[in-house]
Every structure is written in structure tokens, then in C-alpha cells.
Write a structure and sequence with these properties.
By secondary structure, this protein is mainly α. About 65% of the residues lie in helices and about 0% in strands.
Length: about 190
């Protein structure tokens, strides 16, 4: 296997593994008729603090999980492929920052669950790298993100009942901040 093939193969490993964990968690919920909603983020409530770490792992139904799985696989793959050295730091930053901001500032009348905040953060990171780094590779990736995923950024506005637009908004902001913070690290 060539180095390029190995890099491509390795870049799929962690996103596939993480997405697989999400599916296993959801299958456990379904098979045993459980609800892990209380592991979501309940803003400004001490019982909701655990959700900073667990909310991205919990999904309402199979459609919710499926709609998050494909963009999670793609964004995770692109980050590991093109920004491998900072991939873990970016993912950790976006994951935690999004959860903390949702806990601090989101509507407190419901639990916030799902990986979409993480997805918005990863896509935002990929997009803003084109703006902050201005190298050819980063600009091309930003254009690709804009073409294929530009429409999802409408999700940062409160236009769909039952959807945590706050997770989308804070994920987007966390991704942009991560891009700015890591712009000089290759």
C-alpha cells in the first residue's frame, strides 16, 4: 500500500469508528427500549452538565442519526486527511466548546442532543481555514464545503421547531475560532 493510500485509509478510521459508536449507542436504546435523552445538555442545570460530553452521542431516532452520520464521516475524514497534525485538538476544542456554550446560553426548556453541533464545528473549521490560511489546499476545501454544505448554515437560525439551532450556531462559532487559533499550525 502506498503512503497516499495509507493516509486516505487512516483518515477514515476515526470518523468511521466514532460514527459506529453512535450507531451502537442508538441500537442499544432501540433494542432495549431505553431513552438516553437525559444525557443531553440541559442548559444551566447541573444535571445537564454531563451532556457537554454525552449529548453528541445521543440521537432522537434513526433518521436523526442517519442525517448526522454522513456529514460526520465526510467532515471527519477531511480533517484527518488534510489537517492530521491538529485534528484531535480541533475536534476536542469544537466538541467541548460547543457543549459548554449550549449549556451556558441555549434555551433551557429542553435537552439538546445529537452530533450536529460537532458537525457544524468541523465544517466551519474546514471552511474558515480557506479564509484564515489562504493557501491553495485550504481555499479549495473551503469552496468544496461551500458548494456541498453551504446550505446547512441556515441551520444556525431559529427556523425549525425541535432542532437545536443553538448547537449549530455554537458549533459554527467554535469551528471558526478553532480555525483562527490553529491557522499557523500545519
Amino acid at each position: 500500500m502506498s503512503t497516499t493510500q495509507r493516509n486516505i485509509s487512516d483518515s477514515f478510521y476515526y470518523p468511521v469508528f466514532f460514527t459506529g459508536v453512535l450507531w451502537i449507542i442508538h441500537l442499544i436504546q432501540s433494542v432495549f427500549n431505553l431513552s438516553f435523552i437525559r444525557l443531553g445538555i440541559l442548559p444551566r442545570n447541573k444535571d445537564g452538565l454531563i451532556g457537554i460530553f454525552t449529548a453528541p452521542l445521543i440521537h432522537k431516532n434513526f433518521f436523526h442519526l442517519l442525517s448526522n452520520s454522513i456529514p460526520l464521516l465526510i467532515s471527519g475524514f477531511l480533517i484527518f486527511l488534510f489537517y492530521r497534525k491538529q485534528a484531535w485538538a480541533v475536534i476536542a476544542f469544537v466538541y467541548i466548546m460547543t457543549g459548554v456554550c449550549v449549556w451556558l446560553f441555549a434555551n433551557s426548556d429542553a435537552y439538546h442532543i445529537g452530533a450536529s453541533g460537532l458537525i457544524y464545528g468541523l465544517l466551519s473549521y474546514l471552511f474558515f481555514n480557506g479564509i484564515f490560511r489562504r493557501d491553495f489546499k485550504s481555499v479549495i476545501i473551503a469552496v468544496i464545503i461551500l458548494i456541498f454544505y453551504g446550505g446547512i448554515f441556515w441551520g444556525i437560525f431559529p427556523n425549525q421547531p425541535g432542532i437545536s439551532w443553538q448547537s449549530h450556531l455554537f458549533g459554527t462559532l467554535a469551528g471558526a475560532l478553532a480555525s483562527y487559533n490553529f491557522k499557523k499550525k500545519h
